[in-house]
Write a structure and sequence with these properties.
125 residues, elongated, 10% helix, mainly beta, 3-stranded antiparallel β-sheet, single chain, Phosphatase 2c, domain 1, 10 strands
Length: 125
């Protein structure tokens, strides 16, 4: 039987919708799955990596009574936001995403969404 309390995932989703006279890109993520937009050949990160090494995330986890040990939530999980990982919810892990709204322009060429398996080996550029 699968132990669902200790299973989880990161995620990033992008949606484009028409608003007034613009196409608007919404990007939301939890964990370290990242979205990078190419704007005239320059990379712009649209997501936020939720790692237990990020000062803002450390503060957030501690503010709800959680702990960071060895750059991991409660000494076990390297990310501070995830879908699932229920065993870590009482230690400050949340599924609340970071969300950004971006009005698309003609020079916005493409969006890359990938997990840490890619971003740990290549730069946003």
């Amino acid at each position: 039987m699968l132990d669902a309390d200790h299973c989880g995932t990161t995620a990033c989703v992008a949606v484009v919708r028409k608003e007034a006279n613009h196409s608007v890109l919404y990007v939301s993520n939890v964990g370290d799955t990242r979205a990078v937009l190419s704007k005239n050949g320059v990379a712009e990160r649209l997501s936020k990596d939720h790692k237990a090494t990020d000062p803002a995330e450390i503060d957030r986890v501690k503010s709800v009574g959680g702990s960071i040990m060895d750059n991991r939530v409660a000494g076990g999980l390297a990310i501070t936001r995830a879908l699932g990982d229920h065993a870590y919810k009482s230690f400050g892990v949340t599924g609340t995403p970071y969300t950004v709204r971006h009005i698309l322009r003609p020079f916005d060429k493409y969006l890359i969404i990938a997990s840490d398996g890619i971003w740990d080996t290549v730069s946003d550029e």
